[in-house]
Design a protein that fits this description.
Helix content: over 70%
Order of helices and strands: HHHHHHHHHHHHHHHH
Structural class: mainly alpha
Number of strands: 0
Distance between the termini: 71 Å
Largest sheet: none
Radius of gyration: 21 Å
Number of helices: 16
Number of domains: 1
């Protein structure tokens, strides 16, 4: 029995060690993270085979929330149970959470004056989101129907800028995708993946997920307590984001900028800084929480925005084989992904472009940074440092 406990502890520590190393070194966004995971967990350590990894990635692309974080959680669960999933998440996420909380606290102490380097970070945000849109549009809107869905999402998002617009667009796009693509055939081979999660536990996680989605807004209105309002905003943002970290930008912007919790300058400066740290982009929430309420707010925001991802991955693992082979569900997801592209394009225009590109010089600098990222393939942290330094130089002109 003691040997079994020792082996369990050794496995848990191994999960924590490997995921923490990835948390310090995984730059480049969710697609790059999946590549790092494949190299480390599948090819090097052989914790799972190629088919199981592909199935897990497909599930996390299907679900709302941060896909790379959910894949990491799923790998930890399959390797060492629920505690393994928690440790895999902590290792991968905490390095960037700590870095962004420190950044927010330092900026709060210095004050958010119109420093040139902060404007440079805002231009970096333009470049990074534009790059994300190009890749997503190529993959998610390959035909006329999905491009039309994206166009409608752009128009609706820009004309009706409310907190509920994005949610309504996602629901509508899912219904349209279901109608258009429900007859498509599924060529995927049957999965043989086994997950150490019982269906009863999964039902409990899904119940908590939907329960909090309904209960938190009611509590927010009934109590007017700030930390409940913060938790609700971050939880809903994490629960309703399809398409990965960049898509959380418009949801968080709508939640916190118009309400006066932080300024657009603070928001975009943090978003630019988030590109310089490894790990999931959802840790941008830690920065926002820390700006609002110090390090305690940063930790609260981190728990709130990642909690839906945890509940969903644990709640759907046992049912994935059935879901992924349903053409109606897959068709709805195709419509949702197309709408995500439109929502992101609208966010690129407002608030990112309108508050960052203020002159021809700004546009020229953005073009240089874009070329460095897309054509010269320089890592994101180089783009961030160049943007901050270039913004400082431009402020001297």
């Amino acid at each position: 029995m003691s040997n079994q406990k020792e082996n369990k502890l050794k496995t848990l520590l191994e999960v924590l060690f490997v995921s923490t190393r990835l948390g310090f070194t995984s730059f480049g966004g969710p697609i790059a993270h999946l590549g790092y995971f494949h190299e480390e967990y599948v090819r090097r350590r052989k914790w799972m085979d190629e088919k199981s990894y592909a199935d897990l990635v497909a599930l996390c692309q299907f679900l709302p929330g941060p896909a790379s974080s959910q894949v990491g959680i799923g790998i930890g669960v399959m390797r060492a149970g629920l505690l393994g999933g928690i440790l895999a998440f902590l290792g991968f996420t905490l390095p960037s959470v700590i870095a962004l909380i420190v950044f927010a606290v330092l900026l709060n102490q210095l004050g958010f004056a119109d420093y040139g380097w902060i404007h440079g970070l805002k231009i970096v945000a333009v470049v990074v989101v534009a790059h994300a849109i190009l890749g997503m549009a190529k993959n998610l809107t390959p035909d006329l129907q999905r491009r039309t869905i994206a166009l409608v999402a752009i128009v609706l998002t820009l004309l009706w800028q409310t907190a509920f617009t994005q949610v309504g667009i996602i629901i509508l796009a899912g219904f349209v995708g279901y109608l258009i693509y429900k007859q498509q055939t599924i060529d995927d081979a049957p999965s043989s993946s086994k997950f150490p999660i019982s269906r009863r536990f999964a039902y409990g996680c899904l119940t908590i997920f939907f329960g909090l989605l309904i209960l938190l807004p009611i509590l927010r209105e009934a109590t007017a307590i700030n930390w409940i309002a913060m938790f609700d905003s971050f939880y809903r943002s994490g629960a309703l984001v399809f398409g990965g970290g960049h898509v959380v930008l418009p949801l968080l912007e709508r939640e916190f900028v118009p309400t006066g919790w932080l300024t657009e300058e603070q928001f975009l400066a943090g978003y630019g800084a988030a590109q310089a740290v490894p790990g999931p982009l959802f840790t941008f929430a830690a920065y926002i929480g820390a700006v609002i309420n110090g390090w305690q707010g940063g930790l609260l925001a981190t728990v709130a925005i990642f909690l839906p991802a945890f509940l969903l991955i644990l709640g759907t693992l046992p049912f994935w084989d059935t879901l992924r082979r349903n053409p109606k569900i897959k068709g709805a997801l195709m419509g949702v992904n197309a709408a995500v592209v439109g929502i992101l394009i609208a966010a690129l225009y407002h608030p990112i472009w309108t508050s960052s590109i203020l002159s021809a010089v700004d546009f020229a600098f953005a073009a240089v940074l874009f070329s460095m990222l897309v054509f010269w393939k320089l890592p994101p942290w180089v783009i961030v440092l160049t943007g901050a330094f270039g913004g400082f130089l431009l402020s001297l002109l």
